Amino acid sequence: MKGDDGLDELLMERFSLAKDRVAEICTEQEIKAPFDGFFKASAELLKKTGEILERQNTELTLEEWKEENRSLYCELFAENYDHSYGNPAYAASCLGEYGKAMCFLYAELRGTIVYAYEKKWWDYTVAAELFLEMHSAFSEEEIPTVKITEDILRSYVNDYCQDMMEQRIAEAVDPSLDFAVRIIMESDLTDLRYLYRYGEYVSENETGVAEFLNRLTQAQIDDMARTYTEGYRIGFINTRKDITRKKTVNIRYSLGFERMVRAAVLQFREMGLEPVIYRHASHVVNKRGSARVGFTGAVANPQYEYDHRQDSALFLDSDFVKRKLRSMQNAYDKYEELAGVHGGPAVIETFGEEPFSPVSRSEAYALSEAQQKLQVELDNESGQIVNRYIKGEERSFTIIAYPVPEIGEKFQEIFGEIVKINTLDYKLYQQIQQTIIDKLDTCEWVEIKGKDGNETDLIIHLHTLDNPEKQTNFENCVADVNIPVGEVFTSPVLAGTGGILHVKKVYLNGLQFRDLKLVFDCGQVIDYSCSNFESEEENRAYIEDNILHHHVKIPMGEFAIGTNTTAYVAAEKYGIADKLPILIAEKMGPHFAVGDTCYSWAEDTPVYNPDGKEIIARDNEISSLRKEDISLAYYGCHTDITIPYDELGSIRVIDDDGESHSIIEEGRFVLSGTEELNKPFC
After folding, report:
1. Could you tell me the pLDDT band of residue 1, with boundaries at 50, 70 and 90?
2. 573: helix, coil or strand?
3. Is residue 198 part of a domain?
4. Bridge partners of 616?
5. For labelling, which of 32, 319, 444, 575 has a CA lying 20 to 30 Å from the CA of 259?
6. Number of compact structural domains in the chain
7. pTM
8. Quick check: 50 and 19 in contact, CB under 8 A?
């Protein structure tokens, strides 16, 4: 609609009509119990967000900003969530069989909060019109059936799928859509009122990080940013990709890091890259579970995000899959030029929040087995579309992580420690890791065993090196795309790879897993368990949702040995091991990724180590299927699971005669030339 005066005029007329009708509903008594409470609460939310959308003057005091932010998100707080229509259990208790649909609607309406701050008139208007359509249906003498109620919601999703997809893809590649960039580059970052201009929930984590960064010198900020931006640049160099062909970089971050991001924007511009910065998805059409991809504020309540992670169960069918894929294709066709010069993501992760163990609610939408298969199909096909326009062999990425104040009283001290870890001497690690690789390349089998109650017992099959003088199985990973330093990794041969992977406690994608066990045969997960819930059924469903991603089987896409003992000791010193992101945790022991290989979509692009040897282990038996049927080759996920050093018995290479040669014993490096890695333990 942008740029078309006629359409803009029509849109504003629709907005005005919707706004006025919402205001009337706030004072009417048209809806009968038990639905009256839901519609009043929804109307009050829309009235409040509509007023923010229309507001021109934003010269509020800091306290006024804080109060407004709290008022918009407080109903999701743990202490209030039992009485929120965003809670499927509460919605069901109030509205019976209508609870799921109304909870779905309420979650979609909560998106109007961020639309209001971003001045997205169309997004707000279609959400308000959806509410009014539902209100009208329940104003009749005879209330609609559950099916009719759900059909209204399905029609909304299907009618606007194209528009919402096009908007999302535009935000991902078009630097002129600069809502966040303007906040970052134009705000007085010493005045924390800027944090509230996004419309995201702002907690003490966001304000605490911003206050802390404001106390650092510009040189310190520039150094933090340089580690991050240079990692991105070197990622292109090490994979022999031409960064000069790229014009944009996608910056993803959490609120509070604006001072670092501003420095990074300036450094990226020196490389010829403009930032594209978009918010995590707000429309249900664009959401992927509870993952937040893009810039984000705090999560007001992770249980709310978890409860709504499978809301797509309402509308996910074969027609929707076709519609979304067609919409995606059309959108990329429209933005083909911008997509072609996009370089990939540069991500700043945060960690330190209390680990979250979700409650499984039967009242929430859940994907059926058939829908799970459709989701896999959708993920595979959409991945192919993206790769046609933002080519895997031409793009790169980088990712770095920092703590937030919730990590504890020693936040500042821990932050300083993480800065040190992120800037360790990569030359030293490169040399030591090459020593490990040289030993690994002498054999085709690696054995990993746990200790002290860890039941891990794995055998990993490595690729055959036809020319060991010029080939290697393992990438020597230092601080480029994957910060900090500290791992050597490979894609195993699936045939012959098998056994048990066991971790007593691990934190994956924001979720805690206790006593996680995966059983592999021919390199694929064939059985699994954990102890998060009382019933085996719930535990298996938890793994299926969040590790297997609904695949019947899923392969081991990566085997790696982490070498960052400095990070491990720091984690033990401060008691934060269970709060570290996988980005750091994977460097603190051997890790195993289930899903795609590290080279997915770019397997045919040669990759070399600093010693000049080509890494040949870029494929496995499943990814190789892309040559015959690409839909069979990829899983759209890659989840790293690390065994910490204190649970690690041994890592040994096994030669053709069955003789073993140790790299690690009892959690310590014993291979000659790796002794330096044990110093942090002393």
Report:
1. very low
2. helix
3. no
4. none
5. 575
6. 1
7. 0.89
8. yes
